């Protein structure tokens, strides 16, 4: 997102596929990697696949925790953005 502009907060959604977060990112941004992880305790994190749901100069991406491990009563998703030199 643009650091100089207001961006709406991410709102997790739960459905039959699991717990999801949707975000946008610029396509082809050099030296930046995107990843997502899920956790039941905010100590142990597991990778979550990122799926592009809308492609263009700005991509819409979904990270979904399928809720098939740990407790389904308390889950967390975090997005990680890393700049590689």
Tell me the radius of gyration. 14 Å
Strand order, main sheet: write it out.
1-2-6-5
Instruction: Return the structural class.
Output: mainly beta
Question: What is the quaternary state of this protein?
Answer: single chain
Distance between the termini: 20 Å
Mean pLDDT: 85
Number of helix segments?
Answer: 0
Main sheet overview? 4 strands, antiparallel
What proportion of the residues form beta strands (DSSP E)? Answer: over 45%
Unreliable segments of 5+ consecutive residues: none
Query: How many strand segments?
Result: 7
Looking at the structure, what is the overall shape?
globular
Proportion of residues in helical segments? under 10%
Sequence of secondary-structure elements: EEEEEEE
